[in-house]
Design goal:
The complex is a heterodimer of chains A (about 300) and B (about 900). With about 300 residues, chain A is an alpha/beta fold. Chain A has 8 helices and 10 strands. Chain A has 2 domains: about 1-35 and about 90-295, 3-Layer(aba) Sandwich (Rossmann fold), CATH 3.40.50.410; about 45-90, no CATH class. The chains are: A alpha/beta (about 300), B alpha/beta (about 900). The interface of A and B includes residues 238 and 256 of A. Strand 8 of chain A pairs parallel with strand 3 of chain B, so a sheet runs across the interface.
Chain lengths: ~300, ~900
């Protein structure tokens, strides 16, 4: 009996933290370039008649229309009988993904947060914003259908906790509705060519995405001294023995910058974007950047 | 064994281990310290940067040398180096050790023990077995075990536990055992060590040196003999049998060898181990014997239990003392079946108080007392003495006892027949009352003592009067027998010589019933003279055997009875000498105690004469062999720790920063603890030197400020109008501060206030039980949130039930006469603990109200009121102050004020 209670507390903690990060932001309405042609109802008006809240037009009553659709006030003004129609409002689907590979567990000191923890926090905070905007979303690679409402957050949390569908350092390619949006959180330290392959596949589907690279400060600054054996954390990576780390620091930072430049070149090629975030920085700025990226107008 | 000058290696083969050092050197050179491993996700990027293979780093030279030193220390310690090792043991057989473990050896026992342990070490190194024989005989109750071959380890255990025996040795028995063993085991020739006490043993009609030669030759049959001796200079100085003459105790000190002029200190101890006297004794050059007289006041002499030579450290320098040495014990005979009297009015009490300063007093039945040492037996007005007791007493007096009797109603009634022979004079029946209600005369005083009286010379106390006495029948020798008279010539103290003893009668009581003689100092002086007259009679010589109550060990230290000690029949006690069965000490039972001293009947100690040729003689001191192994092992351990730390530091695993941070934390904490203690002390000092009003910190800043200013204002008013001069108010936190300094605690309640924890509640309850008073103030009209908070608080504090202040309560008239108690508000009731609920000097411990008194009392720095009072008017503020004054007076004066309230009624009742 004790186990579930603990999990719930942990979940509510984590969710609470994510929501408090998101609290400073207004509801996020994802700018819908071309809203996915799903039947799901949402806040993005399709400028045509359909299911929705917003008034669209009056038209003459036709045979087969439900009597309940007749707008009696309008009909009383003239002879014909009018039916009130509303605009079809559809929702944008956003697919979220977080790198769950072993490299995300890295934390340079006991006090700092791990990359995985921070990526989950950002994902949940973003999800919380999306929920408030009424958008639909799903976790990539889990097979779940896009859903909306506050109930999604706990579901996300438990999926993230179980590390569902994210054991690789890049998302698997799967079939998605066209024109969906994507946000990926990860460290993207694998070879740029691998990333290029995945991004190209999705971009060809007309999907637009944002990459958030979460790095630890140690990964960026290499703050070690002396003789150190650096071990790989993922399979296939060997160990590297460095005699004097301090001598290598400048070269390493250049190498990392080169890697990131390669990543940026890839995402720019497909119209995607890349944001870099360090775990020792506050999460709000990157969330703001995401907010701007997701809500900006078409072609912006 | 390999010797290099003073250095000897017990296991030189281990030195070949140094050859391994070269291998260690080569091995260490090749193996660098392991690097620190860090898991690092972007390792791929690093791998891009580093192409070439990392060549192994070299171990730093200093680390290499450190490790070689470590290895060397271990190899050397295995080789077991010894500094100044002594010669290896001769022959191949067992090591025979003969130890003189009698009292003479106790002087330098530690040296003997370390010699023994050294021999055990040596035997262990050379892998010899040990045969250990001691010369002091065993008590007959201990089963004699034949000697056997011991391993060196077992021998060492034995040596650790052995103690010198407090009786003389018998070497011949030990030699017999040794030769029996060698005959039994047919061992090869070994080597013999004789640890002597330096004393030659004597046998009948034989020259001591011949006895020694016989001993040596017996030992030489076992192997070459080495004698360990200190020479004759360390032979002990002994105390001979003491002699008591003319009030001083003469002690004889004996030594065996003339060492020139040497001084010693004698100490005499009382019953409780207290040193009664300490004096120096000097042997003049050429003397082997000297005498010292200890002069002790008789009262101190009677407490003497032990005399010894200071720092001698052996039992031969200790003398115990028993009752035979006591001077003149006085027995108080208890009457068979007397009327129970209050203990402080008993005659025994008076007598015991008068006698105790200078003699030992015992109480018991006549029969019991006569069995013991007794000089004087005091019989108070006990009535009938049984025929047997009478006969015993007469015999005892004839032997020299002094019977001291006191008159009283019983004696006055009984006839002369019953007391036949136990009274110095014939008495007239009945008693005489002088100066009573039916008499014209005045109580009689004492006449000066005659020259023939033992009391002659004592000053007569003028205030001593005798109201009643028994009268002696006139007779021819009455005047001779009279030691003290009243002013009218009638005898007060009469005495008669009977055999060697005396029969003495005080014609009045030993308590203050008939006379105030027993209350005067003269009574003490008279008794002292009588005690001086007596000589003491020893107890009868038969009784149960005497068992050892307390025995001395070889060092002269007393301990509870030795279980191996045999009891001694009383009649044989005088003839008994100290032996293994009868160690020196105290023997007896609860009734009588006798001491057995070693020196009684002991002979002069004869130093060991020159040893025969062919015997090695070494001193106990000379054997200083130092083992270097423990030091080498310690060095190896230290080097190992240094090496471990260095290895960790090289790998970067040493959390240097955290260690330093931890150290700083410890220092800071220690500092703050000291600071807290200081703060507590300051708090206690400030509040105990001056009486202060106190308020409880509510947590609300404004409320606290109001409380402080309110109490300041009230203290000012008290200073102006009353004798109470109080210090500035003190803010207290009941959970932290000690409340016991404050007579009154003002406790404003803020809404939602809760006690922080149970401990705080406990402290407040303690404060209330300890006599404190708390004024709870909810500061609002009743029924608000504060009242709720107070209710919560009251549950936690276990407050007593409260009632509205009665109209005639002391609080209404302790300084001013008040009808109600307004504060900033008025009109609500004030509640107080029900009178008589607690015994706290009549002061209620809890007063509760809602008038926000502190606000009414509060003044600013210019002494102007801070808050308006509601409904208003200076009259209300004045009344608020008056309530404050009454309250403080009430808490400070307690029931004094409540007595004042009742004063008219009290005066009326007295009828003034």
């Amino acid at each position: 009996m004790r186990e579930p209670i603990q999990i719930n507390r942990k979940r509510s903690d984590s969710q609470h933290k994510a929501e408090s990060v998101a609290a400073g932001f207004p509801a996020l309405l994802v700018a819908a370039e071309r809203v996915a042609s799903t039947v799901s109802q949402g806040v993005h008006g399709r400028r045509r008649v359909g299911q929705g809240e917003t008034f669209w037009q009056f038209r003459r009553y036709e045979y087969g229309d439900s009597v309940q659709q007749i707008d009696w006030r309008q009909s009383a003004k003239s002879t014909p009988v009018y039916v009130r129609e509303t605009e079809w409002e559809a929702a944008q689907s956003v697919w979220l993904w977080r790198d769950g590979s072993a490299s995300m567990d890295f934390q340079s000191s006991e006090k700092s947060t791990s990359k995985r923890e921070r990526a989950s926090l950002l994902l949940l905070a973003l999800a919380s914003l999306l929920v408030r905007g009424g958008e639909r979303m799903a976790l990539l690679g889990t097979g779940m259908l896009p859903a909306t409402g506050r109930a999604v957050l706990p579901q996300f949390w438990s999926m993230l906790e179980a590390n569902a569908g994210a054991a690789n350092s890049l998302p698997q390619v799967e079939t998605l509705p066209r024109y969906a949006r994507m946000v990926w959180f990860g460290d993207f330290l694998s070879r740029p060519e691998e990333l290029d392959k995945v991004v190209r596949t999705y971009a060809n589907l007309g999907i637009k995405g944002h990459l958030v690279q979460v790095l630890d400060s140690a990964e960026e600054l290499l703050p070690y001294d002396g003789r150190i054996l650096f071990g790989g954390v993922e399979s296939g990576e060997g160990d590297v023995l460095v005699r004097r780390v301090e001598e290598l620091r400048g070269a390493y930072q250049q190498e990392l910058a080169r890697h990131n430049d390669a990543l940026k070149a890839i995402v720019r090629r497909y119209g995607w974007s890349l944001t870099t975030h360090r775990t020792d920085h506050a999460p709000e700025p990157v969330l703001l950047a995401l907010f701007v990226l997701l809500s900006e107008a078409v072609g912006g | 064994m390999l010797s290099l000058g003073a250095l000897t290696f017990a296991y030189p083969a281990a030195l070949f281990g140094f050859a391994v050092l070269a291998v260690i050197w080569w091995f260490l050179r090749l193996t660098p310290p392991a690097p620190l491993r860090v898991a690092f996700p972007p390792v791929r990027l690093l791998a891009n940067l580093i192409q070439q293979e990392e060549s192994p780093a070299r171990t730093p030279l200093w680390l290499l040398l450190l490790r070689l030193a470590l290895a060397s220390a271990i190899i050397l310690s295995v080789a077991h180096p010894l500094l100044d090792a002594h010669a290896p043991l001769q022959n191949q057989g067992p090591v025979y050790i003969l130890l003189d473990d009698d009292w003479v050896a106790a002087t330098d026992w530690d040296k003997r023990r370390s010699s023994l342990l050294r021999l055990a070490d040596q035997a262990e190194r050379e892998n010899r077995s040990v045969v250990f024989a001691t010369t002091a005989p065993r008590p007959s109750s201990v089963r004699a075990e034949p000697l056997s071959l011991l391993s060196a380890a077992d021998a060492r255990k034995l040596f650790g536990a052995i103690q010198p025996k407090p009786w003389p040795s018998n070497r011949q028995a030990a030699l017999d055992q040794l030769s029996a063993l060698s005959a039994r085991t047919a061992a090869t020739a070994g080597t013999v060590f004789w640890l002597t006490n330096g004393v030659a043993e004597q046998e009948q009609d034989e020259d001591p040196s011949a006895v020694t030669a016989k001993t040596i030759s017996a030992l030489q049959k076992l192997g070459p003999v080495t004698v360990l001796t200190d020479g004759s200079l360390r032979l002990p100085v002994t105390l001979g049998e003491p002699v008591y003459e003319n009030g001083s105790l003469t002690l004889t000190l004996r030594r065996s060898v003339d060492q020139g002029s040497v001084g010693y200190f004698l100490r005499a101890f009382g019953e409780d181990g207290q040193v009664l006297v300490r004096r120096s004794v000097v042997f003049e050059a050429g003397d082997l014997e000297t005498e010292a007289a200890l002069r002790l006041p008789s009262e101190q002499f009677n407490r003497l239990t032990r005399v010894d030579i200071e720092a001698a450290g052996h039992v031969g320098a200790v003398l115990l003392f028993d009752e035979r040495w006591r001077r003149r014990p006085v027995g108080l005979a208890t009457a068979g079946a007397g009327v129970p009297v209050q203990p402080l009015l008993r005659e025994h009490h008076y007598l015991a108080r008068a006698l105790e300063p200078f003699t030992e007093v015992r109480e018991g039945s006549v029969e019991d007392l006569l069995k013991r040492e007794m000089a004087i037996l005091a019989l108070t007005d006990s009535g009938v003495i049984s025929t047997r007791d009478r006969n015993d007493l007469q015999g005892w007096i004839a032997k020299g006892g002094v019977l001291l009797r006191f008159a009283g109603p019983n004696l006055a009634q009984s006839g002369n027949q019953e007391n036949g022979g136990l009274l110095p004079v014939r008495l007239r029946a009945g008693d005489r009352e002088i100066g009573g209600a039916m008499s014209w005369g005045k109580p009689a005083t004492l006449a000066p003592f005659g020259e023939e009286s033992p009391f002659y010379g004592l000053p007569i106390a003028k205030d001593v009067t005798v109201r009643r006495q028994v009268l002696a029948s006139p007779s021819l020798d009455l005047a001779e027998k009279t030691w003290a008279r009243l002013s009218d010539g009638t005898p007060l103290v009469t005495a008669e010589r009977q055999g060697n003893g005396w029969s003495i009668l005080f014609h009045t009581t030993a308590n203050a019933e008939w006379s105030n003689l027993a209350l005067s100092g003269m009574f003490v002086d008279m008794l002292r003279r009588i005690v001086g007259l007596s000589q003491g009679v020893s107890g009868s010589g038969d009784g149960p055997p005497l068992v050892a109550i307390e025995t001395l060990d070889g060092f002269g230290v007393a301990s509870d009875g030795n279980v191996d000690a045999q009891s001694i029949a009383q009649k044989d006690f005088e003839k008994t000498r100290v032996s293994a069965d009868h160690p020196p000490g105290v023997y007896g039972d609860s009734g009588s105690r006798r001491v057995l001293n070693l020196s009684v009947g002991a002979d002069q100690l004869t130093p060991l004469s020159a040893l025969p040729v062919g015997v090695d003689q070494i001193s106990y001191e000379a054997q200083t062999e130092r083992d270097l192994r423990p030091w080498l092992l310690l060095a190896a351990l230290v080097l190992f720790i240094i090496d471990s730390i260095a290895s960790l530091a090289l790998r970067g695993l040493l959390p240097m920063r955290r260690a330093i941070a931890g150290l700083v934390w410890v220092l800071v904490l220690a500092g703050s603890a000291g600071h807290t203690a200081k703060a507590n002390e300051d708090f206690a000092r400030a509040n105990s030197l001056q009486t202060r009003l106190a308020y409880v910190i509510s947590g609300d800043e404004q409320v606290d400020e109001t409380s402080k200013r309110g109490l300041t204002g009230l203290s000012g008013i008290l200073h102006d109008r009353t004798a109470a001069e109080l210090g500035s108010p003190q803010a207290v936190d009941p959970g932290v501060d000690d409340l016991s300094f404050f007579p009154l605690l003002y406790w404003p309640i803020v809404p939602g206030y809760r006690l922080p924890n149970d401990l705080t509640a406990q402290r407040v309850i303690q404060y209330l039980q300890g006599g404190g008073t708390i004024l709870f103030d909810t500061r609002d009209r009743s029924g608000g949130a504060s009242a709720l908070a107070l209710r919560e608080l009251a549950f936690g504090l276990d407050l007593p039930p409260l009632v509205p202040v009665p109209r005639d309560h002391v609080l209404t008239r302790s300084f001013y006469l008040l009808d109600d108690f307004p504060g900033r508000w008025m009109g609500d009731g004030v509640w107080i603990e029900k009178a008589g609920e607690r015994v706290n000097d009549g002061v209620a411990s809890v007063i509760s109200g809602s008038h926000d008194w502190a606000a009414a009392w509060a003044v600013d720095d210019a002494q102007r009121p801070l808050y308006p009072v509601v409904p208003g008017g200076e009259r209300q503020r004045e009344l608020a102050y008056r309530f404050g004054v009454n309250l403080v007076m009430y808490t400070l004066t307690g029931n004094y004020k409540s007595d004042q309230v009742h004063l008219p009624a009290i005066l009326e009742r007295i009828g003034q």
